[in-house]
Fold these 2 entries.
Entry 1:
Amino acid sequence: MTERAYPVPDAVTQPFWDGVAEGVLRIQRCDGCGRHVFYPRAVCPFCMGAVLSWVEASGRGRVHAFTVVHRAPADYRDEVPYVVALVELDEGVRLMTRLVDVEPSAVAVDQPVEVAIQGEPRLPYFRPVP
Amino acid sequence: MNPERVAAIAGVAESDLGEVAPKTAMQLQAEAAREALTEAGLTLGDVDGLFSAGGDGFAPSMAVGEYLGIRPRYTDSTNIGGSSFVLHAGHAYQAIQTGTCDVALITYGSTQRSQASRTLGRAGGMRGSAQFEGVWGLPLPVGAYALAASRHMHEYGTTSEQLAELAVATRRWASLNPKAFMRDPITVDDVLASRWIAEPLHLLDCCLVTDGGGAVVIVSAERARDLPKPPVWILGHGESHTHLGISSMPDLTTTPAEHSGRAAFAMAGLTPADVDVTELYDSFTITVLLTLEALGFCGRGESGAFVSGQRTAPGGEFPLNTNGGGLSYCHPGMYGIFTMIEATRQLRGECGERQVPGARVALANGTGGVLSSAATLVLGRD
């Protein structure tokens, strides 16, 4: 068994992972153009602004796309089938996640979801909005 | 049509394909290069532009140069995934146009099947943008293409049956190609009954894992005048990329072939309607559907209907992936070079049972990464 993948924060992304550790989903918002940015960056890809402030995200969004994984990478084979999704947050940014507390067959594109931070390593999973 | 004649494909070759153990990836490249240069009536000493990606070490063109004793005036190890070799052809055109080289050699080789080196994901610490994508157990690349497929199905009502039509048609082409790895006919039901890999993609929606390599020789118009084979002219080329990871893809149903194709067609002075035979990187069935739309062969959301009724099969209205593609002919990890090899042979009329009669204009398109990059060539014969 290899070492299962885990995130390695860097100077720019550390506040995101600090937030996850505290149970909070934080994303960047550019002071220059006001747009939300994800993943975290040192320079805004929309306006080249260099000042990006951290804001607490609503933690809500919709399933933008999803796949039910049956043939998994080595470290995840015990968990199939599971759902990996791209979630578009209400703030407009998209992130990859896994959906929990839902049967794979019950997942649909555009389904409303909310963040559910959990696991080891601790990660921002999502689950259907009740 | 663009009347300018700058650079032509003068030689193409595959190495051994399928399972080649105990041959190495470098041996495959060397053998393919030798055959392609021989076909072009040239020798290693004529090569002054060298292009490779994805092979041994950190600088593949340096490794190939050392192995074959080539000291190029122009060198390019650009790696943007499986589209790299189509991009290399465009760069070779530019280098020839500016007089930086006269004879360009592009090579690729892989032994991923015999070495069982293919993995679906990495372990350990994830850095950079991978710290947000590499921690979810998404099998790559298939999972990313599955995400795009789910979105296309949602937006346009595309069905698994339509994806399967493409796999069936491609297998029918493979049955006409003696070099193809999988030649037994399949049905739509076979595709739908094959096991899930990452929904909505079944096993038979996915490309093969084979060994293999290839080489392409591109020469200046002056050199092209007295070659053994009829020249296959590069009429237009284009390249682009929009993202690295799938969560950063601006629109999951629009590939960067939209940009590379537009550039290639504009340069060629042609439109999709002028293309007689089309060779697209078919890493997965959905890759082809999205690329058909991005290149303008059909409208947005229309690709499912476009490939239905076996329209892309032998004898159909739209000859597509006539060698049997990555789905059924060979797929040694980075397939792009094979789109150019088959397009060239079709334009020369060398394809035997699978020849598209009277083909004069061909399109080759590579896709790299997770729908991340694209490179397009429009090719024509005299």
Entry 2:
Amino acid sequence: MDRHPIERLENMQKNRGLPGSLYDALASLKLTLFLFFALAGASLVGTLLPQGLAPEELKARYSPSIASWVDTLGLSDLYRAHWFQALLVLLCVNLIACTVQRLPKTLKILKQREDTFDSHKLLKFNLNHSFTAQLDRDDARPRISNVINKEFAPLQWVDHPNAFCAVSEKGRWSRLMVYGVHLSVLMILVGALIGSLYGFKGFMTIPEGTSSNEVTLFSDDRMAILPFDIRCDKFDVTFYDTGAPREFRSDLVIVDQGQEVLKSSIRVNDPLTYRGITFYQSSYGSMLREAEVEFKDRESGKVHTLVLPFRQTRDIPDSRDTVQITQFSRNFHQFGPALGIVVFREDHSPAGSMILADKPEFHGNKVMNYQVKVLGIKQVPYTGLQVKQDPGVWVVYLGFTLMILAVGVTFYASHRKIWVCAEEQRAGGVSSRIVLAGRTNKNTSTFEEDFNRLCERLENELTIHTARGRPDDQ
Amino acid sequence: MINSSILLSITTFAYLLCTILYMAGVIFRYRPLLMGGTLVGVVTFLVQTAGILLRWIESYDLGYGHAPLSNLYESLVFAAWSIMLIYLVFEFRTRQRTLGVFPALFAFLAMAYASFSTGIDSRIQPLLPALKSNWLIAHVITCFLGYAAFAISFGISILYLLKRNHPGNPSSSGVLGFLPSSKQLDGFNYQMILFGFLWLSVGIITGSVWANSAWGTYWSWDPKETWSLITWLVYAALLHARSIQGWRGNRVAWLSVAGFACVLFTYFGVNFLLSGLHSYATR
């Protein structure tokens, strides 16, 4: 395979001073290779070390000296570490520098008119073929033209003082495809950047029958407040007869400024989008709705039974106390379900305790002067939604499309070129020497076959016409 | 009564026969054996295609109704199918029969692993909610076309390395002399890698778009995603390295071997050694 002039140019640049050398280094293929291997190696490390550890987990998992290294290098949140993102930025710089350096040269080559050449030059090509036709140059010319136009691509004649020379080429533009691939990578990275700057990702849990507008963000533990409410009317799981889950479904209603504007059921793989924010079915479970709790004042002996909705304050009758369930544990220290109950009394600091629901006789089932007994627990299913707004996703998708097209075309298309030269064997003679040469930047073996077939066809054409032409000469 | 498991069992043994024929053809330098390899390969491929289609139909009879691409067993069967599909098209296009040993061997190994491993459930299972999407078909098919091309490229690279680094003059005699020239092997290897790279790219992209429509994030650095990116980077490095002088031949062949190691880790290693979103592919 012959080397393309662009690649040769790279070796010709020297003595360019520091800025020039730096630019060359940033645009170099060696940097590209380094970045590919560095990114691959770093990603590999990221899959081996657990990611997203809290500082305490980090200390528990590693010895102090290793933990400090892991922390300094950001190895437990590697893909967001500054040095990893610096590698990505450097990749973008490399892509841009390489494009700025090479694209003008590629364009120049694409626009360039063919230099004059002769048969000697063509015979030096890796792929060449020559034969003698019993025809003079002027008769050979239209026939060559015919065959190559039909079998390959339109022939363009090149000036030459005493021979007919022409070139024919296909897929010239395929040389631009590599820039398409590079642009697509840039678009994907830029799209990801837009998403991380102007979008958000979070999580919300909505108990069946209630609505919410609070989203817990993944990036930090802040809350985001949506400009509208989302209500979950029903959450449903269905199962196959094997016991495997078949479908998770939430019936959601969007309530915007008091109006029910949109009703929709979402499933895994079937999200809902409203005002640029998308809701995905992501998890489910059940949480406490309310509990029936008995409070017995150990001093007065009075007994009150209250229905306490989760995390809502209620008064205890005949007292100035209020009470709230603040926590619910399905299995508290292996003692079964437990409620965290807090009693608030004026001029006192609040007092609370975990009350074991299944063990009414447990000695710790008391708060302040109350003996507490859980009479009933009502749970409600909730749906867990992933919430996302990502204005950069369309740029990423555009990058994806461009990448598929450009890599696809790079695979299927190549720049193939054929040179042909017809010159008189002897001055004034009726035989001429035909020389062909071919070159491709890819798919060498297929092109060789095509080239050989073309030469064969041309040789046939010229000899048959010669045989037919002979009687006229006499 | 013909059912998919009988057809797929036949496929397993027939690919072994195909491998033996190709191997014997190269070792004894006897072309009719290679012809036999091709013939058995084509017939087995058709039997396997019928087996896969039948399994698809059977899943509807069970009331599940999904494409047979949903678990490790089905993906291994499909991997064998893709390898043979790409290889047979390649053989038909290039008229090179001597490179069939590795593809046939890989197809046999994939089928044998799927059929005989006790850890792999070959029953038709219902589809998990996360997999209920048309993206499943697009994602799995494109990824496996890529993996299969890389498997074939790995085979070609091994032959290239054997031939290039064999002492003496391999071009004149011996088993290696029967193979295409090392320049041809290098060319085939490049074509195969470019083809694999195209499909791996499409596979990663379809997976990404699917993840975005199912979970709201097109990239989450899940181990499977990350390893497919590592594989992509290694092959991208290979394609770029080829345009630097001196990186032809041996180095490219070694990079292709490294790339295939990444493919294997992406496919098997991630499932068994690391945890993540693709855990349904272990059973």
